[in-house]
Amino acid sequence: MEQPRPVDSMVYPRHSGIATFMRYPHIPDARGLDVVLVGVPFDTSAGYRVGARLAPRAIRHHSSQVRLHHPVHDVTIHEAIRIADYGDVRTSPFDIARTYDWITEEFERIHSFGCKTIAVGGDHGITYPILRAVAKHHGPVAVVQIDSHTDTHDAQFGSKLTHATPFRRAHEAGLIDPKKVMQLGIRGSLFYPDDLKWSKEHYRMVPMHEIHRRGMDEVVADMRALIGAAPVYLSLDIDGLDPSCAPGTGVPEIGGLSTWQAMQVIQGFVGLRLVGADVVEVSPPCDANDITSIVAAQLLFEIAAVFAVNKAR
Amino acid sequence: MEQPRPVDSMVYPRHSGIATFMRYPHIPDARGLDVVLVGVPFDTSAGYRVGARLAPRAIRHHSSQVRLHHPVHDVTIHEAIRIADYGDVRTSPFDIARTYDWITEEFERIHSFGCKTIAVGGDHGITYPILRAVAKHHGPVAVVQIDSHTDTHDAQFGSKLTHATPFRRAHEAGLIDPKKVMQLGIRGSLFYPDDLKWSKEHYRMVPMHEIHRRGMDEVVADMRALIGAAPVYLSLDIDGLDPSCAPGTGVPEIGGLSTWQAMQVIQGFVGLRLVGADVVEVSPPCDANDITSIVAAQLLFEIAAVFAVNKAR
Amino acid sequence: MEQPRPVDSMVYPRHSGIATFMRYPHIPDARGLDVVLVGVPFDTSAGYRVGARLAPRAIRHHSSQVRLHHPVHDVTIHEAIRIADYGDVRTSPFDIARTYDWITEEFERIHSFGCKTIAVGGDHGITYPILRAVAKHHGPVAVVQIDSHTDTHDAQFGSKLTHATPFRRAHEAGLIDPKKVMQLGIRGSLFYPDDLKWSKEHYRMVPMHEIHRRGMDEVVADMRALIGAAPVYLSLDIDGLDPSCAPGTGVPEIGGLSTWQAMQVIQGFVGLRLVGADVVEVSPPCDANDITSIVAAQLLFEIAAVFAVNKAR
Amino acid sequence: MEQPRPVDSMVYPRHSGIATFMRYPHIPDARGLDVVLVGVPFDTSAGYRVGARLAPRAIRHHSSQVRLHHPVHDVTIHEAIRIADYGDVRTSPFDIARTYDWITEEFERIHSFGCKTIAVGGDHGITYPILRAVAKHHGPVAVVQIDSHTDTHDAQFGSKLTHATPFRRAHEAGLIDPKKVMQLGIRGSLFYPDDLKWSKEHYRMVPMHEIHRRGMDEVVADMRALIGAAPVYLSLDIDGLDPSCAPGTGVPEIGGLSTWQAMQVIQGFVGLRLVGADVVEVSPPCDANDITSIVAAQLLFEIAAVFAVNKAR
Amino acid sequence: MEQPRPVDSMVYPRHSGIATFMRYPHIPDARGLDVVLVGVPFDTSAGYRVGARLAPRAIRHHSSQVRLHHPVHDVTIHEAIRIADYGDVRTSPFDIARTYDWITEEFERIHSFGCKTIAVGGDHGITYPILRAVAKHHGPVAVVQIDSHTDTHDAQFGSKLTHATPFRRAHEAGLIDPKKVMQLGIRGSLFYPDDLKWSKEHYRMVPMHEIHRRGMDEVVADMRALIGAAPVYLSLDIDGLDPSCAPGTGVPEIGGLSTWQAMQVIQGFVGLRLVGADVVEVSPPCDANDITSIVAAQLLFEIAAVFAVNKAR
Amino acid sequence: MEQPRPVDSMVYPRHSGIATFMRYPHIPDARGLDVVLVGVPFDTSAGYRVGARLAPRAIRHHSSQVRLHHPVHDVTIHEAIRIADYGDVRTSPFDIARTYDWITEEFERIHSFGCKTIAVGGDHGITYPILRAVAKHHGPVAVVQIDSHTDTHDAQFGSKLTHATPFRRAHEAGLIDPKKVMQLGIRGSLFYPDDLKWSKEHYRMVPMHEIHRRGMDEVVADMRALIGAAPVYLSLDIDGLDPSCAPGTGVPEIGGLSTWQAMQVIQGFVGLRLVGADVVEVSPPCDANDITSIVAAQLLFEIAAVFAVNKAR
């Protein structure tokens, strides 16, 4: 298979052309590819301020800004790996369960070809059906979750499939290796006193004030030690970042991560066995002139660069 | 029962105080009331650009602008009728069917006391569960629908309960007197060639170009003749208005009604047996600095004034 | 005195340079000038949504768009009259009475040189102190008011000097010839049933529905007949326009004038003895990406063109 | 060749998938196609407020709203004609002349296959290089221009290739049949007294006040009579519409066309020999939450429907 | 008295219902309550960019996001203290002195029942009339002021009651214990060289560069030592935060506090005798899609949690 | 020459008056002045998202917020130096080379009088023609560039004069002392692997991660050692700041400088021989309610203060 090549932004201006993720070609077939970016334009499992269904398009548009070579890793992504924009998964805004099944099917198909996925949500609920697909091919995975909320509720408004429950569902279904789960950046008010209890008991939950006190270098070292050689999934809820960095999300929480700290976490995956990732909860209608979509596009670039440098090493 | 009184905007500035519809008192009990405004903050049955769940709050805020007396009808609404802000219906953003049941229950309770309702959506799907409640007390009702779309599809993405289907569902359930349905302002592109067929066969469908050609006076005269003495429900989808007047909606369609034309339709209800109404599909995230919420608040005032003047006559 | 010349937009792009009204030179001295544009950046007499204090700057910025020659009147404004940007009147956001005095003083000084004024508000309260100055030089004047509200209240929150009272105050002070006042476009809900009574008794109040019914040509003919040869002041509250045309104002009212209708009124002043004018209640923070400031700039151009063509005839 | 089919919005929600014009497939090869939509993301020939380079993407995104069947013409576009999204022309934001050459080359290639074009600008300057290509295949064409400005200046800031000059350049190059040019909606202030002279002498220039006075039905009848059987190009500058309908443009002018009037003009092309069209000067950064891109998408649908119904007849 | 309970956001979605502060019940009577949140929708004492009059409503709306339990203090606020939304104080936008009197009266009434207050401004001027009420019940209080400006001017535009003077007025009136005043985060350009002199002489003024150099832990320790056992009032001007965190304010100043640093200060009040607090100068019209209102809501939660944990200890 | 005095914001409110930089008088003649602020409203050399042509006006408007005295340097700028708003340079949006020539001519004229310049861009391309003028009077200068991009490309889309090439052009022309160039804050993805090579070979390029690791104090000390007694030019691309601090720019890059860090760099120029400066790439259409223009205005104040304190010492 030929190496897919992005549009060259030094020839075609970045505001031109049909928008795909990072100007990679649109290839709706994962055979022969190493990594695909997949849009999941679905936010019906969000319980409050919606809009994340519009994120894949907004991020595609602004990801044209991103260029091709990562200066710290010194890697040109599309040369190190075969990477493409897979397009969007089918969804029904009216039916969570059916959409989750469609998500699982599509991601299973992709992973069945040995291709890895970077999902662009959508709300955080989508991580559960993605993990169903990932675990089918990789077994129970380690998870690093950047987030202000643990998303380990049992139910919300009586529903089991929401953006507050994905890691509880994945846990119950045995998709996760609970010894190797790190939740980074947890903070903010709680519905009930015991909201964090389950996470504390089952996972390595790192509240944001711990990061403020210890510094990110130490925390990343802990993360790398915890994950070790396990296949690992990175789930980045954009509300893990501080609202100053990522205002465009349904439930921002003050006192969060800077973009630099989020980059440190992602760059900490060099050498780890990353098998999948997602960036979720970007909500263009909640945003300030799309700055959060721009930030998300650059974090997706950081993630893609890890896949590339890990392959290149 | 004492006559509920709104906050006096000549004493308390309009930007102050907890926001209720038109500054009427919040009374979550319909007994003794003539008309209540009810928020239905639900948009999960919208299939494209969401946000109408935020409309009741946005409209409450901007409805403070509205004053108390209607100069054309020469009626002070809260003196002619006992009217209040009932609050919002319970909803689950994850469950359309359950939410529709909650809507029906709450509206049944209200109508069971002889109180009439002005619903503030929410997406257009909510009209179906409201009509279930209205028809229970008033029998099959005449309907005047201001809209760019007929909303008489059978299903969308395989779902029967969506904002594209309320009048089909209501029709099937016998909640509507099909001989007395007028759809005003229909226009815009169609998914399939036969999209309008059902409406044309069953209802008096007035496409927008007919209104442009004949003028609104004639059309309103037709409407009054068609409805006659029947109990009638007015459903105003804000996308019936032209995008210049109401940009803040999920699916605006060019070539639509001016606010003046919408006012003409509403004022045409004087003397008719209006038993309920709604204003739906206002979407604050799609709006331009809340102008559509302001317009909607004033249309709600026009509707409330009709209830008042009809009672006062 | 040399004829002041605006910046030539065919030489210096319209987005460049320090922004003055229509790129006319800034001349803070009215001697020898025919007409000046004067900013009145004051909105403390607005009782609800403020922001009009920012209008003079926003309108200056966008008035660069306006060019120099009026094609219908066939007049190049700055050649027909000596016109300039006078700058802004001194104001204190904390003190209405004192600011009104400063306004009167500054406008008296300008009119004392035989120069006429186009004021750019600011809230509508400023028309009262301007009329104090205008009447001093021209005697009680005829007034044409384009507005959705009559602004003839006696007081608001116990205050006599507010944007709801200027024409009452001016009337009491004998600044207006009550037989020659026309209020155009009046509409919208009322605080109390008698809000319009005073206007109806004293003035020619033309409610908006009358304009919708009769058409603007007839109404303008009425206006010209009423004003005759009297010195006349034109006060244009931007909320006289429909919210679709002018969303950026504190209290928009649906069912209003189109920009074309407003232009018809202004062009109807050709041959009348126009001695002063204002455009008020543009509120940039309430606006949608400054479109109302753009509209206001073009209406100011229409007004300036009337001064020019009347002089040129 | 197989009939290209758009994404079915009743299967894939309209906010999902990579955005192409009206969800038609992206086919960068005109062979076998009847009509293509072509993006021209270029605004360097705009002299004031830029941003139109972002319009093709914004319009692609919002054109997902548009459905497939036109109810008035009763035609399903993609069944009547083979139509696709061709993608964007190559541009250099730094070089007007070179970009114009690229535009001409690309449009020549398309028309060389007998395929017609609907260009999505971009500023109005692009019409000149498009007409170079169109005239090569069709000879000098009739032109209907919907616009507030004539765009027949000779130069701007000393440059001959700008958005104020395309029809002058096309005229000089003999690309236009001057007897069959109609300019509709012209209005607004002029740089110099003679700005309209050239247009009046050479073309049928219909100022906006004439349309207000005579009504659009008469004007469209004139247009059809003037064009007759000639091959005709439709150039729709979005600022021909009133700012209430299309605020998102660099130089809006009050007193303009309603969307309904623009639709009347476009629908007036049924039976005419339409060989090309464009919609230009949509500027997302000047817009109010993308409403102008939505309006433009629907006008593009109207234009595409004319191609379809003309073929289908 | 029964313990007031907020709406349960796990039953009623957070976007639903009439908006009160943190969904606490609206109780306009302080008897039996420990703490009330009080809106003060007044910004006439702001001298530049206004809009803070709209903050109580915007913050009420977005405070629905906040949940009930504080994870660091491990306290459920509404169980530890009886807390409610008191509603808004009466104001007149036209009269600063009279409004200040109304504020003092209302806050005196509240404090007379032993209830403490968290005021939601409004501009910073309101702190003076609040302190008049607080000092009446608690004697001269210690003050911690988070702010970029000292607000200790003597007058502005000749007026003594403005948002630049509250602490000077309070000082003169003996409402403050000057030995126990700490001003945190002071920075930005000065009108005149001596602007800071008064503060430096009378208070412990901590400029922002000192915080950058020493770190917040040390500064908070200083603060706790300074305040000791005195009754203390916390006044948080949102412009104490960096513009990246709180863009929505009239006069943002670069180089300011992060939200995390503000949280550190607030959490430093555990064990202190907090008798009142305010959050002021949030200006929705100056904001970027309401992010500053969201931040303010979460800071109000932090303050309420201090009242709760101090009571609970 | 009399000392030019700014408008006193304690007399004339900051939202009033014709907007000039920091309310300094508009003096289009540099004779006798020490420093002028010069607008360069030009963005045609920007290759992606434009809008910087609107920055001089937006920054003028918001710079009214800035006061006159710098508390850290303890200097009142307009008393220490004669400083004014020079107005804008002539530009043609259609012609980069010609505009660059105009820029050079105008800046030469200014520097020929011994006056120094603070340019307000405009895109970064303008630094090259400014350096042509500066170097003519001061010889090859040292340069400190705060930026996320090195802007040392050789060409873009085949053009040599773009915002990606100014320092390459200046270098080739011998305008810069290459031993004394420091680039601060470089980061972000690269078009090609060697994008940074040239900078690394020729300049002291300090990538952002180095600043994160070493701290700004050390880096500023390096800078001062490198520059020494050389005449130095400061070029501040606003995208050197983190997107949280400066979202309003064409190509924001995550992980950047805080405003505090940018202030540290600028304050590090005390005692250095600063001969010119610019702030570029602020793009109001990309901004979030003008916060970046506010930030830029305050950074311009910091720069002006350095000129003042250096003169005053």
UniProtKB/TrEMBL annotation, chains A, B, C, D, E, F:
UniProt keyword Metal-binding present: yes
UniProt keyword Metal-binding present: yes
Enzyme Commission numbers on file: 3.5.3.11
Any one Gene Ontology molecular-function term assigned to this protein's record: metal ion binding
Keywords assigned: Hydrolase, Manganese, Metal-binding
Pfam families in alphabetical order: Arginase
Binding residues annotated for Mn(2+) 2, in chain numbering: 124
Names of the cofactor(s): Mn(2+)
Binding site for Mn(2+) 1: 147, 149, 151, 237, 239
GO biological process: putrescine biosynthetic process from arginine, via agmatine
Domain of life: Bacteria
Details of cofactor binding: Binds 2 manganese ions per subunit.
PANTHER family recorded: ARGINASE/AGMATINASE, GUANIDINO ACID HYDROLASE, MITOCHONDRIAL
Recorded family membership: Belongs to the arginase family. Agmatinase subfamily.
Protein name from the UniProt record: Agmatinase
Organism annotation: Candidatus Segetimicrobium genomatis
Taxonomic lineage from the root: Bacteria, Bacillati, Candidatus Sysuimicrobiota, Candidatus Sysuimicrobiia, Candidatus Sysuimicrobiales
